[in-house]
Amino acid sequence: MNKVLLLTAMMIGHLFVYADTQFYGQANISYQKTHTEISANSDQWELNSNSSRIGIRGEIPVDNSGISAFYQAEYEVAFDDGEATTDETFKQRNTFIGVKGEWGTVLAGHTDTATKEIRRQVDLFNDLAVGDVKNYMSGENRMKNTLRYHTPRLFERFSGSVAVVSDEDSNQDNNDGSTISLSYQHNKFILAVAHDEDINEQNLSRAIAHFETGDFGIGALIQTAENTGSDSTNRDEVASLLSLEYHATEKLDLKIQTGQADIELDNNDQQFKQVAIGIDYNLNKSVMAYGYGAEITRKTSGASTLKDRTAGVGMVLRF
């Protein structure tokens, strides 16, 4: 065992010497009162870890070719109860290797789809209980066995990507998925579209726009989704989001977000509505304190209306 540890330490040391290596992380801890009716029936105070994470990443130039190899290994950690998932200390997040040059970037591994990535431009309450859009809309997929190509910046404003996802766990042939995306960015305006084909047995198209003017940031998202699996329930979804952020001072941000999803199922229809408000105070570039409240309402045809809601305070530490 000691020889194995020594060999591992020597390999890590060699990597740090010859690679531009960075250890990084984010701790996002909140204390809040949460009332749930949709997924469960509870009313309690919670200490949440909100997808806190640690990771290591680096880049290694390949001689004088202008090509670099890079890697990242990232894991979710739980500062509240020590378990990122049931009986696990660490849960794998975006972990991959790749190469890049003037021609673009190729990476392979376990990574967010481009459809999920473009949402970050407009979702102001990502990772937070009840506030995260994954609570009412589809498309928040992190896929293993992914091979992706990113274009370089084209005409200084355009970029795109294409990815294939191998469904190695399936017993069926030709059950692989794919994602394609295109984005436009000029000054403080961003427009992006992405499409998933047979990702988690679903076809999904998403478009976002984000614009900054003065002290305000305005974001919007719209998407459609439908199930494609032969054994899955028929499910058609139309969802949208609108967010507004006000930079009151250099340190203080005020934000509000609202969203909706209309879902058609075999036996009934559902409608989700979300609203969230928050305040962020940036103590410096690495530490932020915040407070927020959020509510999701679910209306189901022929059934009573249910609500999840929460309010609390928290702190984000980036390192």
Automatic annotation (TrEMBL):
Gene3D superfamilies: Porin (2.40.160.10). GO terms for molecular function: porin activity. CDD domains: gram_neg_porins (cd00342). InterPro entries: Gram-neg_bact_OMP, Gram_neg_porin_domain, Porin_dom_sf. One of its GO terms (biological process) is monoatomic ion transport. GO terms for cellular component: cell outer membrane; pore complex. It is found in: Cell outer membrane. It is a multi-pass membrane protein. The keyword Membrane applies. Residues 18-299 form the Porin domain. Keywords: Cell outer membrane, Ion transport, Membrane, Porin, Signal, Transmembrane, Transmembrane beta strand, Transport. The keyword Cell membrane does not apply. Residues 1-19 form the signal peptide. Homotrimer. This is Porin domain-containing protein.
